[in-house]
Each structure stands twice: as C-alpha cells, then as structure tokens.
Amino acid sequence: MIPRCLSRPLLAGLLALCSSSLAWADGMIPETSVVIVNEADGEASIKVRNSDNATALLHVTLQDLPEDTEPLLFLSQPVWRVESGKEQLVRFILRGEKPLATQRLKRVIFEGIPQSLETKAQGLAKVGVSVRQNLPVIIHPKGLAPNRAPWTELQWRLADGKLSVHNGSPYVVRLAQELKLLPSGQTARLPRSYVLPGDTLEIAFDGGLQGSPNKIRSYPATVYGFAVDAHEAPLQAGGA
Fold first, then answer.
1. pTM metric for this prediction
2. Strand positions, DSSP E, 83-237
3. pLDDT tens-digit readout, 174-220
4. Are 222 and 1 in contact (CB under 8 A)?
5. Most C-beta atoms within 10 A of its C-beta, which of 159, 169, 216, 235?
6. Residue 200 CB contacts under 8 Å (≥ 6 apart), including other chains
7. Phi, psi dihedrals of residue 100, rounded to the nearest 5°
C-alpha cells in the first residue's frame, strides 16, 4: 500500500520504478513487474499475455545498464506470434563462468507489434501502434540470503557541502529520486532511481545547505517496485 503522506512528485517517482506495471493498457502484459533470475537455478521464466483483440508479435529485448554492460543473460527466443488472449512463456538463461558476488540489474522490453490494418474507409490507412513494457531484471547470486529492506544498508554522508550515498551491500536498492534533509525539510534528488552494489552517488540539492541536517528521509521501494513507508537514516558528517 502506498503511504498517504507521499507528495505527488514522490508518488510519480515511485510509480516510475514499476516501469508502468501499474498502468498497463492493451498489449503484451507481463505477469509480474520484475523478472528475478536466481543464479542457483540458472534461468527464469515469465508469462506474457496478449490482452489485445488481435494476434500480434511479441518482441523481447534485453538491455544493459550504462553502469553494467556485462552480458549475463540471453533469451531462449526473441520473437513470438501470440494469439489474442493467449500467453507466451519467455525464458531468461544465465550465462557466464564466474560466480556472482552481488545482485546485478538489467532491463527487459516486452513489445507487442500488431499487424498493420489497411482500410479504404474515407481513403485512410490505419496502422497498428506497438506498446512497450520496460521491466527491471534482477540477477540474484547463489547463496545470498534475501533482503526485504536493502535500503537500510545505505550510508548517507555530508562532507564539504556535498551529499552522497554509498551502497556497500550486495543488494540492488530501488527508491524514489526525491529525498528530504531533516530537520530542515530541504529537498534533494538522486541522479537515478536505483543504487547498485558498490555505488557511491552524489546527490544534488537546490541552493545552499540549510541548517545542520543530521538525518535524511528516503522513499524506498520493494524489489517489485512497490512503495513502502518512508525511511529515515542518520546523515554522517566528514570524510569516509
């Protein structure tokens, strides 16, 4: 359940984490808002349903993040023909010889491409429009225990007027980009909505620093991108 206290910008940011999974229209609909591939299993699968009223092609594309371009996954097949109302099982297969030390984050795009519709009514040609769903893919290392609240592992620091966050844990952390310094209430913003293992991100805030903040309030999301209660963490001062 999304907390009532979230402002519209914060709510919008958290909904964006779900990669439009909460606002699907007609087209190819994945059964979940995130794909989790366990290294112990070596693969994972997800069902995608064609909710449109016509047969369409399902085109699946894997994407690397700018921060992590190592190709760790491949698809059993990139394109399928899916009848209206039917489901297609898409398999993600893990590759790579080295064991994983941390969670890894990738993206997958499910695109429904309808057949072109030609009509001579009023001398116009109608062409079907493709609809995309862009989901995160989390690759979970073998032997790593699940962590339902990885945002508690983040270390927030203020030094020389610069605000930063470090993720020393092996978990991917997803959260809204909007932050709040306490007790002043001054707002700040992360450069992106995820913090990878080992990441240290600098955080921007408008104007000069107000007061002497000692805490920071963040708005994290679960592994599936759903908002949870706001989290407050101590703000460390000085160098690392």
1. 0.83
2. 87-94, 104-114, 131-140, 154-159, 162-167, 173-175, 178-182, 187-189, 194-195, 200-205, 215-218, 220-221, 231-237
3. 999 999 999 999 999 999 999 999 999 999 887 778 888 999 999 99
4. no
5. 216
6. 164, 165, 166, 167
7. -80, 140
